[in-house]
């Protein structure tokens, strides 16, 4: 009887041991798969960190389409930018509107998803730059950063877009902000003029591609100035500085909402004008209407 129990106990322990040894390979395979998966994830994260390290942070300013040299004249006056975030989002100004969307970067590869954009309308030259820029983004497949320069290439390796880090001037000329899109371009696109007015004392200023006509003190003073090339201040203001026959004029346009003190009419821009040292403030708008609302 004792012998039978001894044999039974021996066989039970032996089978249990064999069962444990058979489970071991399966556990080892699972551990290997987990380790491999973790390794792949670590490599992907390393690729992601490497790719975005140079892109993320600064504002990149478009300076060229492809190999065009230097850049289109219109692009010199239109601001096109790209800012990359660590959350794989890209955003910026596409010339007239603001845009945003997703991007994917892997070491030297770069692809953009579909972009969302505001729906503001600007003169034809600005819109053509914007449409071309957003269209080219869809063709981008790789990139290269050299010093302060970012080059984007298509699938065939052709250079399509060149940016410079930190914005700044394009070929020594300061580019236009979104404010300029509705004011500077108003004098050269399909919008015929920019007009502004103020009260106490009443004044009117009309900017066309050739002249700035100023009427001061309810029309008692009338001076016509040549229209200069406008400058863009760091704040985004559009600034006209000009002189004529011993008179001086500085007209500053800010893209901030304004309400006329007399009529209560709203305007999209605030205007500060200084004529012969005297400064006045008022409102303005681009378009085919006079500042007082009558048809031009």
TrEMBL record:
Residues 1-23 form the signal peptide. The keyword Signal applies. Residues 53-164 form the DUF306 domain. Transmembrane segments: none annotated. Residues 23-49 are annotated as: Disordered. The keyword Signal applies. It comes from the Bacteria. InterPro entries: DUF306_Meta_HslJ (IPR005184), HslJ-like_sf (IPR038670), Hsp_HslJ-like (IPR053147). Keywords: Signal. This is DUF306 domain-containing protein. It comes from Longibacter salinarum.
